[in-house]
Specification:
Layout lengths: L1 H11 L25 E6 L9 H16 L7 E7 L17 E5 L11 E10 L12 E9 L4 E2 L9 E2 H12 L15 E2 L11 H11 L26 E10 L5
Parallel strand pairs: 1-2, 1-3, 3-5, 6-7, 8-9
Antiparallel strand pairs: 4-5, 4-9
The structure holds zinc ion.
Zinc ion (ZN) binds next to helix 3 and strand 9.
Length: about 260
Amino acid sequence: MIRVWLAAVVLLGAVDASAYVQSRTKKAEALTEWNTRLITYRINEVGSDDMDFDTLVAQVALSFAPWLEQSCVEMEVVYEGPTAHGADPEKEIGYDKVNVVVFREQEALWLHDENAVAVTTVSFCEGKGGVCDRAGEIIDADIEVNGAFPFAAGDITPRARFDLRNTLTHEVGHLLGFDHTPEEDATMYASAGPGENNKRTLARDDILAYCEIYATIFAEEPVDEGCVAAPGRAPSGGWLVGLGLLGLAALRRRR
Ligand SMILES: [Zn+2]
C-alpha cells in the first residue's frame, strides 16, 4: 500500500506532499475512521508492573493529548475508569463496545509478535449496515502493551527503558485509523527504540493525517458494499466486522 501511494505522489509531482497512510479494511479495502468525535476508553484494572495505576491513567491521557490539542478537529476522548474483568484477552479484544488499554505482563497473555512493543486491534465494518453508516467505520479499538519490555513514565526517559507516552501516542494513532508512515520522524513511524520519546510529539505528517481525515465526517465516498456479504461471521443485519492489527516494533530485540 505504501508503494502504491509513492507512485501516486510521483505522478502528481508533489515532492513535499504528506506521507501518512490511512488504514484500510481487509476485504473491502475501505479507509478506516471513526464516525464520531467522542471516543471513550477504559484501562484494564490489572495495570502495569512498571508504574502505579494513577500514573498509568495519567500517561494514557497524556498520550491522547497531542492528537486532541490539534485545533483542526473537535474530538473528545473520555476515560471511563478501569475494567472489571481481570486480564483475560478474550474478554476485551475485539468488538465489545469497550475500547481498552491493557498491559500484558504475563507472557502467556501476549498473543502477538514478541518484538512488538504494543499492538492496537481495530474493529471496523467491512460494509455499511448494522451499526455502521459506511464501510471502514471504526467501532472498537483496543491497545495492548507488551509487558516484556521495561517502560518508563517520567519526563526524562532512561536509555534502557521504553517511554510509555512514546509508545501510546503511536498506538492512539492506530486507534484513530492510521497505518505506519514512511516518515522517520513521525509518531506513526513503525519502530521505536529504548530511550526514545520523540513520538510523544506529533510531526507535521501526523497532524496532516489527523486534520485531513477528521476535519470532516466521512469525506470519502462509500465503497461498493457488494463484496462484503460474506457468510459465517456476519452478525444479524448482514454487516461484517473486520479486525486490523498494527503495532510498534522494538528497534532492539529484547533479551
Ligand atoms: Zn504501529
